[in-house]
Design goal:
With about 290 residues, the chain is an all-alpha fold. It has a single domain, classed as Farnesyl Diphosphate Synthase, CATH 1.10.600.10. Helix content is about 70%, strand content about 0%. A two-stranded antiparallel sheet has the order 1-2. A hairpin with a 2-residue loop joins strand 1 and strand 2. Helix 9 crosses helix 10. The longest helix has 28 residues. The radius of gyration is 18 Å and the shape is globular. The two termini are about 25 Å apart. The model has no long low-confidence stretch (mean pLDDT about 95). It binds farnesyl diphosphate and magnesium ion (MG). Farnesyl diphosphate (FPP) binds next to helix 4, helix 8, helix 9 and helix 10.
């Protein structure tokens, strides 16, 4: 199976599993389940769950052992997108090619659906098939990645530009390592933690860090050079808001060169035939058009 074929299969698997995990819109409280299904089943790339499954493949671990962890990270990612789009944060109208949840339904439901996705994610992590000590370690790892020293901390820094508005390249790097990189790194490392493969944690961490950064750099490039229709959300916002981005610091060509360097560095971390999916995912990050 080629890399793109593997990715397509895994995306279909994750979509089906997500569908099965959220009770139908007839469940009570009905508006909440409708909101959860609207946000989670929208056409996302499923990059973070795919990364969990690709790392498990590299380690020779069965997919069912890590599938709950893969879904958990998509739950957390989806909550972060719902909340990021709220009027109090980015105030966006479109996400994944559809009106954002607060526009399609209401702001209170968007807040509460995001709130619900977080405990649901930790419940999923607790379902992973592994020794209890390993599962606890996985829960701790994700808690750290999405808390004040990770996703939430990065978001706060993004929303509070330094006085004068201009960020240094180093500050930008640190911000995105937390906001975008921490969850992606957790996705890469989780299968090694669950399998007790301590030897694989460091290379997967370095792989995740490089890919996470490349992901954000490509996001910044697509905001200036990408198609709004393909992206499924507004583009050109960074420039309109005067945000410091990898493009404003390095230019499009410079940012592209950095993303390519990170791709090569990531791929060098994981070798062997079973690293094919990890290599394909890393390449997708840099080559994607949405
Ligand atoms: C696009 O993901 C999203 C990012 C590049 C990360 C953005 C980070 C935030 C919005 C953090 C928000 C945090 C809080 C606490 C509110 P993607 O291209 O994989 O999107 P997709 O799943 O729709 O394909
Ligand atoms: Mg946003």
């Amino acid at each position: 199976m080629t890399g793109p074929e593997w990715l397509e299969r895994v995306r279909a698997l994750v979509d089906a599993e997500l569908d099965g995990r959220i009770p139908s819109a007839a469940a009570e409280p009905r508006p909440l389940y409708e909101a959860l299904r609207y946000a989670l089943l929208a056409p996302g790339k499923r990059f973070r769950p795919a990364l969990v499954l690709a790392a498990a493949r590299w380690l020779g671990r069965p997919e069912p052992d890590v599938l709950p962890a893969a879904l958990a990270l998509e739950f957390i990612h989806t909550y972060s997108l719902i909340h990021d789009d709220l009027p109090a944060m980015d105030d966006d109208d479109m996400r994944r090619g559809r009106p954002t949840l607060h526009r399609a339904m209401s702001e209170d439901l968007a807040i509460l659906a995001g709130d619900a996705l977080q405990p649901m994610a930790f419940g999923l992590l607790a379902e992973c098939r592994a020794a209890p000590a390993r599962v606890l370690e996985a829960i701790r790892l994700v808690a750290e990645a999405v808390g004040p020293q990770g996703l939430v901390g990065g978001q706060v820094r993004d929303l509070r530009p330094p006085t004068g508005g201009v960020r240094s390249g180093d500050d930008l790097l640190a911000l995105h390592q937390d906001k975008t990189g921490a969850l992606i790194t957790a996705a890469a490392v989780l299968p090694a933690v669950l399998a007790g493969r301590d030897d694989a944690v460091a290379p997967l961490r370095r792989f995740g860090e490089a890919v996470g950064l490349a992901f954000q750099i490509t996001d910044d490039i697509l905001d200036v050079a990408g198609s709004q229709a393909l992206m499924g959300k507004a583009t050109g916002r960074d420039e309109r808001q005067g945000k410091t981005t990898f493009v404003s610091v390095y230019g499009v060509a410079g940012a592209q060169a950095r993303a390519r360097d990170l791709l090569a560095a990531a791929q060098a971390e994981v070798q062997g035939a079973s690293a094919d999916a990890l290599h394909a995912l890393a390449a997708f990050v840099v080559e994607r058009d949405h």
